[in-house]
Fold each of these.
Amino acid sequence: MFRAGFAIPPSVTEPVSPRVTVPAAQDEPNRPERHQLAERRGRRPIGAATDPALVDRARLGDLDAFESIVRARMDAVYRLSLAILGDEADARDASQEAFVAAWRELPKLRDASRFDAWLQRITVNAARMTMRARSRRRVREIHVRSPAGAADGDSGVLAAALDTLPIEQRTLLAMHYLDDRPIAEIADILEIPAGTVKSRLFTARRALDDALRAEGEE
Amino acid sequence: MIEPIWDDDRLRRAYGDRFGRPAPAGFAAAVAEAARGRGRSPSRMPAFVALATTIAIAIVLGAAALAPRPRDNDPERRFAHGLPVLTVSDALAIRRASPEAREIAVKGFLSPAPPGIRCPFSGSHSLNPVRLECPAVFGWLLETPDPLDGIRSSLPPGRVGLQPLFPGLDTTPFVELAGREGDGTLPEVVLIGHFHDRRGGPNLCDVPEPEACDGFVATAIVSIQGQTVAASTVIDLEPLTPAPRREPVWTPDDVDRLLLATIPDLDMLSRVALPGHRIGELEPALGTGALGVIDRPLAWVVNALQPDGDGHPRLRTFLIVDGAPDEAYEASNASRVGFAAINLGVPPVSPSATPRNAHVSFPPEIHGLRVISVAEALAEVTAAPDSFGFADTELAVRGYYIVPPDSVACQLPRDDIEPLPPADRECPEGLVWLLQDPERPWDLVDGVARWHRPIHPALHPIVGPNVPFELPRLFRDTSEAEPLAVILVGHFFDASARTDREAKQFIVDALVWHSGEPSGDQTVVTGAPPTEERAVVEARVAAALGRARVTWAAVVDGGSLTGIDPSPNGELLAANSVWRLSRLVEEGGRPVVRYAYTVDGASRIWERGWLAPERRIDIVGAGGSTVVEVTDVPDIIVEAREVPPDEPDPVSPRVITDGVIHPVALSNPPGRANELRIRWTGTDCDEVWSVWLGADRQSIEVKPARTVECQAVGIDIDIVLTFSEPVPADTVLIGSFGAGG
C-alpha cells in the first residue's frame, strides 16, 4: 500500500504465518536489536554474555574463574552504578559490594545462564544500599552542587537533573538510555512485569524532562 | 509526551559522555581480591534460604549505634534489675553447670540473623518459642564485638556466643537501630533470660533434641549500647484467619496496676496481649485447650521479677484473660499444665479502653483488598526499595486515626532514634497518626496535651484536600480524646513523589470503613455543586477507561487541582466543577489507584493530566489485528477512521523515519487540508497503538500502548484523522517516546 520510498517490511506484502519472526528490511530495520542500536550510536555494546561454564566453576569455588568474571563484567557494573549514584567513590563502593555479594551468593544461583541478569539485579540493589547510606551521611554534610552544565555541557546538566530524581527512576533511565536495554530485558532483570517497567520508565522520563527543564532555567 | 526536552539520541549521548566510562584501572583486580578475602560460609545454605525476605528477628545492626559505650567499671552497669551482669562465657558456664531455668543477665554483642533470609516452613514444633529454628539459629549474642564472617548457625573456632530467642518481646529497639552508621563493630546488648526453658510440651526439649533447649530465652532487653530499654509491651492482636480481630479492654497500665495491687514488689519486664487462640505460641502447654484460654478473646502474659527470700530476683510469669481479673494464672512447675490459678483480689482498675474501641472487629477484606495492619504497611514501604514491584500498590490499612486538638503544642519531640519515614512530617501534620493500636500518643502536662511518638507502629497518613474525612469530632477536650478505628485505602510511592522521602509517604485515597461500617460511597463536594449524578459520571468514565471500582469520588474546583495533581490540564483548571474519581484497577498484576478527571457535564476524560483516548479504531489486517486509540488533547479531531485497504494515496507522502519506532507516512488528501492520512506498519504483538495529538495541534505521538511478547507479524495501519481546522502534513511533528522491548 505504501508508495515507493517508504520501506515496507516484507511481511506486509507477503504475509507469514503467526509465531514466525519477520525479517526486517536491511536499510530500515523494523525493530533493531540492542547491540545494533548501540553500534549505530557509536558506542560499544554491553558485551557478550558471561560463559555459563565460567559461572559454574566460580559457583563451585574457583576464585580464578570468578576473577575472570569480575574483569569481564566490571566496566558494565561500574558504569551502571555510576549512572545510578552519580558519584565515582559511591560507584566504586557499590561495584565492589555487588561483586562481593555475587561471590557470596553465587552458590545459590541455579541457572548459570542467568548470571548476567542476576548480577545486574545485585548491582542495582548494591547501588540502592549505597544510596541509602549516602543519604544518611548527607545529613551531616553540606552538599555542594556545581552550577549545572557550567563546564560539562549536556552531560553536566544531565548529572544535575538526575541528582533530583528518586533512585528507582535513575535506575530505569540508566538501564534504558545508558545500557540500551529494552524494556523486556529490564523487566527480566528487575523481575517485574514489562508493563510496569514501561509505565515507570515513562514516568521517569517525564520527571527527567522536568528536571532538565529546571536545570536549564537555573 | 510529544516533545521531550531532549530527544532520545541527545539523552543517550549525554549518558554516554557522563557515565560511559570504564572502571578505574586496577579496580577489577582489587575487587576480586576483596571477594577472595571475604570467602564463603563453609556451610552451604540451601537454595530456599537465598530467597529474600525480612524476618521477624532480623535485627539489622551491621553498624554500631552512636551512643557511647558503657564503661565496664561503671557500677550501674554491673547489675540489671538486681541481677549481676554476666559475660557470655559466664552464662554458658551456668548453662553447663545447672539444668535450672534460672534468670540471669548477660552482656554481649548482638550479631543478628541477617535480613534477606526466608525460612522454610516447619511443620513440626512451629508453635514452640523455645526451639531454635531458622532464623533465630543464625543470630548470636557474642562475647566480643567483632562481626561474624558470613551467616552461621555454628561459631567458628575462637568465638564464644549463645543464641538468644525473643518470644513475646518487642524487638523494635533493635530494628530502629538498623542502618545506623558506626565503627563496624557489633552493638553491645544486655539481656535478661534463661536457659533450660520450662516451657517444654510433648516432644519439646526431649532427649533426641537436646539442642532445642540450649537457646537463651530472653525475657527482657535491658539496654542497647548502654542506653536503657523500656519494659517490653507487645499488643499482637492479629488473629489466625478467619477469626475476627479483637481489641483489648485493658491497657498495659491496667494490667500492671492489677498485678502490683496484689504483688507490690514486682519488677515488670514484659507484657504481651494476644488472641486467646494463639496462646500456644507463648505457652505451648496451653495451646491445646488447657484452662480454656484458647476460647477467650484475648489474654495477657506478663513477665516480672520478684526478689525471693534471699533477695535474688526470680522470674514470675502471669497469664490473665483480658478484662477478667478472676481468670488469672501463674506459671508453676507444680501444675500439670504449667499454670495454676491465682487470686488477684479486687482489681483497683477500671477498663481504660472505651466501648467504641473495645474489641473492634475489622473486616478482613474490603474492595477486594486484604486489610493489613499498620506494621504490615510499614513493612511494605521498608521492603519496597528492594523490589520495584511493590511501588504504588494500593493498600487497605486498618488502624486508629487520631488528630491533635487545635490547642496542642505544635512541637514535635526530639528523638534519638530515627523514625521510620514519613514520621518526620512538619507539625501539625506530623501529629496526625494512623496507629496500629488504640494508644494515646500524648501526655497531659498541667492540663495540656503533649504529643509523643506512639509506642507501637504508626504512620502519618497524608490526606489530600480532595479526601476530607467526615469523621466524628475526635477531640472535644483532651480527656475525651480517643483514636477512631478506621480502614484507609492508600499507597506509598505516589507517582507525583520526586524524592525518596516523598515516595515513602502514605497517600490516602479513601476512608473506606469507620465506626464499624463501610464508608466512601458518598461524593465529597468542595467545588461548585455538580449537575451530574455520580453514577452517570462513573459510567462515562468506565466507557472510556474500562470498568473499575471507584473508591472515592470528589467534585472540586478546577483551580484547586494544582494542589491535588501535579499536571492538571488547562481545561480542568478553568472549570468550576471537576469530578475526580479514584479508580481501583489492576496494573502489572497488582491493585493500584488511578485518578480520572472530567468536567461536570462535559465528555472528555483525563487521567492524571493525560487525556483518555476518545476514539478507537479496530484494525484487522492480513497478519492479525490491533487497535488504534486516538487521543485528542486540543479537541480538534472531528473524526478518526481506518482507510480501506483498496483506497490508494494519490499524493506522495512525507515519510518520517527518525525518532519513531516504525516509519510513518503523512499526507493530506488533495483538496482536503483538514484531513491527515497517517500510515505505518505495526505488528500483531502490539495489541494497542496510541495516536496522541498534542496541545500544540502539530505534535503527534505514535507508539504501541500495549505490547505482548510474541513473534511479530506485520500489520498495515492506515488511518485518516479529520480535524476542525487545517493540519498540513509537512508541518506535523512525529515522535514515539516510550516504546521499546
Amino acid sequence: MKARSSRRGRWGGAVVVAAALLLAAPAHAVAGDAYPVSGGSLVFGMLTGTDGYRIHFSEWERGHGRHFKVVVDGHDASLTYAVPAGRAPADGIVANLGRRGRFELRLGRLGMVRRLGYSSQCEGVPGRWQRGYMIGIAHFRGERGYTSTDIHVGRIPIVIESWPAFRCHYAHGGGPRVKPRRAQVFARRGGLGFGAVLHARHSGPADQRAFFRAWMDGSAGRMWISREVMVPAPESSFVFPGGPKLPEEVTVEPPKPFAGSASFIRSPESTFSWSGDLTVEFPGMNPVRLAGPGFGAGVCGVDSCVRQEPEREPPA
Amino acid sequence: VKAWGRLVVAAIAALIALAAAAGASASQGAQPRHVEFRPPTSRAFINLGEHGGYELGVAFVEPDFAILYAQQFEEETQAAATTAYGAHFEGSLRGGRIRTRFGSIGSITVHFVPDGKGHAGRRGKNCEGRRPRDEEGHFVGRIALRGEGDYFKLAARRVGGSISRTFQLRCRVKHQAGAAPATSLRGAVEPVSGFVLNGSGGSLALLQAAERQGNRRLELRATHMEGAPAGAEVTAQAFEYQGKMPVGRSASVPASPAGTLLTSLPGEHPATATLKPASPFTGEATYLASSHLSHSWTGDLSVQFPGLLEPLAGPDFYSSLCVVSPLRSRYGCDFLPPDWQVAE
C-alpha cells in the first residue's frame, strides 16, 4: 500500500490551534473569558487504507504525557484508536496497537522551519512547523478488516509542529456560525449515543436538512476506541407524529449505515419512551441497537428540551 | 424511631423559620464591617410519643407560639400526613415553665427538669458571646390532649423533651440586617405549598382543585414533573380556625406510583385527567372538559388527614388542569395561571 502525500493547506497550523482550543476550552467559559492552552508538540501524517478509508496517525505530546492516535475516516464514519505512546528513539515513533497493528517510524525533517500562527482570539509566542517524512513500519488493520494499511520501510510525508503555552479568549458573539435548528433528538446508554438534528427550512437543500450521528466509546485493553458515524438525510427522515401541538413527539428513520426507526413518544403519564428497531452499523461491527430499554433520551426545540432518564432496574 | 425523627425534623424546621424571623440574621460569608447584636432566643420541644398510630410532639418558640403536631409517615412510599394545632403559651421558655391550651384538644401545664445531658452548640461566624446550649430532660406536670373524634388520646405527667437556648451575640457583618418580618401563629401552622420534590424541570401535567367550606380552606395539587418517572407527586392541604386556634393539615405522597395521574395529551380534546393517588388518599376523581368553558371534577377521591377525612372532588370544588408541551411552554405549568372553574 502506498502512502499518499499530505498537504500543508489541509493539515496546517490551523488544525493544531483548533484542536488545542477544543481540548483546552473549559465547558463553562463565556465570551470574553481567557483560558490557557498548554504547550506541546505533534507529528502527524496520513495513509490511504483499503476500501476507501483514510488513516491519519499522530503522536501528541502535551503537559500530561504522550499518546499515539489513529483516526480512520471514510464512508460517513470516523473511528479513533488511542494508546499511550511507546518509548521511542529521538525523532521516532513507536506505538503498539495490539491486534489493530503497530507503528515503528523514524523521522526525517525537510526544508525550513516556519512560523505557526494562532487565530485572532489567541495570543502567545508563535509555534513552529516543518515538513518531514517517516520511514519504517506502519501496519493497521480495522476490526474484521474493514480497512487496512501495511507499509514496510515506506516513506510517509508528515508535518511536525510544536508550540509553547498560549492563551485564548472567547470571541464576543459566539463561535462559528451554526445552522438554525428546528429540533434535535438525543439518546444515550453508557458509551453509546445517538443524535439527530433537523435544521430550519431555509437552511440548505431539503435532502440535507436532517443530520444523524451515532457514536460508541469504549476501551480494549490499554487502547481507547471511539467510533462515530454521521450522515445527512432528507427532511422526511425526521417527522413529528404529534403535530405542532406536541412537538416533543419525534420519529426518526435515518439512512444507512443506520437501519430501522425510533420514536420519542409521550404517554398519558407525561413520561416519554424512546423505542423502535433503530440500529447502526459501525465499520467492522455487527449492528448496534440505538433505542429501547436502558436508553435515556430527549428532544429539543428551538430553545428548550425535554428528557427522560432510563427506567431504573428493579432491585434484585 | 425514623418516623419520630421526621416529626422532630418537621418541628425543628418550623422552629428555625420562626427563630430566623424573630431574630436578626447576618449575611452568609459577610465581610465584618458592621457590628450587630443578636438577641437571645429559646425554644423547646416535647416528645409525646406515639398515640393512636400518630407521632405527637409540641414545639414552643418565642415569643409565645406553641404548635402541637400529629403525624403519620409511611416509610415505603414516603407518604406523610400531618395536622398542626397552634396556640399561645404562658410562662417562660428560659425558665422552663409553660402553660398552654389547644382549644378543645386539651392543655399542657409543665415545667422542665434537666437531666444534666446538655451540650454546647456553635456560634455564628464572626460572632462573640456565649455559645448556644441544648439541654435534654423531662417536662413534668399535667398533659391532657385528645384529637378530634378521639383519633389520639393522651394523659401524662412526665414526658421527654429538650430546651435550646441562644445567648446575646455581638457579630461583625457586612450588611446590617433590617428588622425581620414578624411571623404570626397562623403563619407557623398554615401549610406551605409549592415545593416540588421530584423531576428535573417544570411540571408537564398539573391538576389542582380547591374548595372553601365555612372557614376551612382545602387545596389539592397533583403534578408530574419533567424527567420524573411514571407517577405523580400529590399533596393536599387544609387550613381552618377552630375557635381562635389555627389548624393546618397536610398530606403528601412525593412519589405516588405509575397510574396516579393520567391525562390527555396537550391539545387533545376533550381534556381529561384521572387522579388515583396512594394512601393517605383513597378513591379516584376524574376531570373532564366538555368544552373550553366548562368542565367537571367528580369522583370519590378523599384524603385522610390526622383527625379529618375530607372529600377532594365534587360540584363545589374549583378545579384546573394544565397539560403542556415542554417545547412550547418552557417552564411547564408552573408559571401559567390556573384555569379555575367550579365543576359543573
